[in-house]
Amino acid sequence: MKSFNEFKDFWQRQTASIKPIKELKHLVFIVMYPDEVKWTPIVEKQVQTTVLQTSGGITGSGIGHVQKLCFKSEVDKVLNSCDEHTHAMILMSGMIFDMTAPVSPITRFYEFAESGDYCKGHIIDTARTQISSSAWRPGTPIGAYLHEQHVELNLKTWRELGRPSLWEVWKKYKRSKSDVHGDYTPFWVKPFNRPLIKNFTWPQRRAKAWSYYILPRKKRHQRKLWMDIQGLPEGWADSINLDTRDNYTKILMKRMQPRFYSENTELIGKLPEQEFDLIFTPTAGYSGEIFADRLNFKGEVIFYDYCRENIEIKQNIVEMFMDPDQIEKYSEVSKHPIVFNRHGFLQNHYPDYDMKKFKKEYGDRTALRLLQYKMYNKHKVDYWHMDLIKTLRSKNRSKQYGALVEKIKGKNVFFDVSNIFSYHVSHAGYMLEELVNVLEEFEQLLATHTKSFYLKGTRPSKQEITR
Fold this sequence. Notes:
Layout: H1 4-14, E1 27-33, H2 41-53, E2 66-71, H3 75-80, E3 87-92, E4 95-97, H4 105-115, E5 119-125, E6 144-154, H5 155-160, E7 173-175, E8 188-191, E9 197-199, H6 202-205, E10 208-210, H7 216-229, H8 236-239, H9 247-252, E11 260-261, E12 275-282, H10 287-294, E13 296-305, H11 308-319, H12 324-333, E14 338-339, H13 355-362, H14 365-378, E15 380-385, H15 388-394, H16 399-408, E16 412-418, H17 424-429, H18 432-449, E17 452-457
Parallel strand pairs: 1-2, 1-3, 5-9, 11-14, 12-13, 12-16, 13-15, 16-17
Antiparallel strand pairs: 3-6, 4-10, 5-6, 7-8, 8-9
């Protein structure tokens, strides 16, 4: 895309049909873009990451947050348009959250909205520091103020105060004696005629990072990072230097390594009644086994995955009829990580965490194992090492694409893409527009070559595919 405005308009079109979650519609998430920064592919990736992580769910994998995108210079105006909301999380693009943290930054914001506090942010105090004024960036104000990277605001109190600018500089204030770091980041500040404002603590700071786009060294490092990830080339994950001092890179890479998911985190939902003779489904968990059992289906099941090790693990589990204990023992000797969800399948999908509903759809582990056995004995089962996005992008240039077309030709196909197009790894490797275009082309491919098809999964904007 050519500009932030173009990205903003595109994202808003993609998410226009998403309804806010009722329990969270009083909250608003605002992502800003710095007016002075030139739009580049690398900056676009950082914007895409911040927007994706704040659009829904405590791990960024859901939907339903009210979200607004704007330039930094527009944020006061945007806040003035938020009278239906009680609290705002305001982020500068380039912010990234560690969604593997015991308490995610999204959860902490939910908690902030219940706390009664007025404001939380990265407080800077340039007036009472030993650092020479010449060491600050030109134009840095003298006084206490909020850094642009991350602010959380009680909008009800803010409106009662007369809607002051988010970027006001306080000359008269009290502050804590100690600092979070250095001597210019007080734990709290109490400006004249303003409520107490708190700084982010170290546990809260460790769960996030900002790109610091203004620093040439950071800019060079992150440019290389995004270029290495672009298109997810073979071996890309091993090529990233995780010993770097750049916290942005460390947090981005935390959930990037391939792994096998032994259990599902997605509800099955309502399934179609039409007849199928071919199922394509990812290797994770037992959803493929449930599709084979509950669909009106007689034919072949194909498990596919972009990771060769996941294919091998799935095939071993199916053909050796492993129970959960055996899978855990298998994980102890496997060089490839196998993930277990010991605290409930849906704990990262607030407020949709409903174990009763999930267990009703999936049944217990014994029932799932029996479904797997039934599938193996009743249907032909095959395993494809296939990176679906790469295969679709390659079109006729790859044998895999040709094999896919031949396999679906004239068939009644149930194709589960799961969260492949909305997955954070896919968003790291591809531009938003690329993912949207590839999915649209895939729908056209299915319409052209199959007798009939049903496509299940989520779009790049994370809402369900309804086709």
